[in-house]
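fyi for ur records
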Amino acid sequence: MKKKFNKIILFLLIFSSLGYSSNDGITEMYEFMGIQTGVSSVNIKAESGSDILAPSIGFKYGQQTSQWRTAIYYNFAQNSDDKFHSVVAQIDYGVLTEAFANAPFKPYIGFSIGIMQHSSDDGSNSDFIYGVDTGVNYVLNNNIDIDLGFQHMLTSSKLKSLDGMNNLSVSLHYYFD
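which gave:
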């Protein structure tokens, strides 16, 4: 299991840097770190129509240009005996950038891929997750922004206990000079 996890982490690190591999006129790239909190709604397969609501906390590292953002993050959510750990790589594209050029709000859409582990009294299993995300950044100043995001994630068939997960999160990002 540890070898599989290490390979997936390496893959996610490589994946998160792919958004900037082409020469697409990028003049400035900004590194950032952030913390996030929110709530995860996890659909349990065994209990049709049953969702677990779990508060979550996490941290992320990423790079951003005027239109693209890649990030890798770790998230932990827990509700009673159910624990969820996830490591996800996310690529986002700024939409309506011309319309919001002079506004502090920056909407985005993107996709994510990662790994999630679910553990409970019934045991533990983990595998790939993938999905889409959307949200809006609010730029406070040159070094700090606040992000409100929503993510809809699906699980692979090997993650036996879960169908999918929705995350609503608020993140605080600090940009390095």
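The beta strands are 30-44, 51-64, 68-79, 82-94, 105-120, 123-139, 144-155, 162-175. thats all i got for now
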